[in-house]
Amino acid sequence: TCDTGDQQTTAAVHLKEPAATIVERLKDVATYEGEDVVFECRLSRETAQDAQWFLGDVPLQSNEMNEIRVQGTRHSLILRKVTLEDCGSVSFKVGQHSSAA
Description:
This protein is mostly beta strands. Helices cover 0% and strands 42% of the residues. The mean pLDDT is 91.
């Protein structure tokens, strides 16, 4: 705001968060039934953008079978006690970027 006493003008600053990119992609994992499996991605920056994990086409949430962690730029998915039904594609998406294993 600029105020000269009898006149005043105001402007605003608006910021857009730059898009995060995936700098460390998912890697394929082979394991035994009943074991836990960990998938990790690393982003170019910490972001408030929504990041989402998928098993096949099904979006995942943290629960007793799936643990989703975010530590700075590192995003992790732990699938607990996997079964043969868990075989398939795991993907991670943030903004316009995605990685799959």
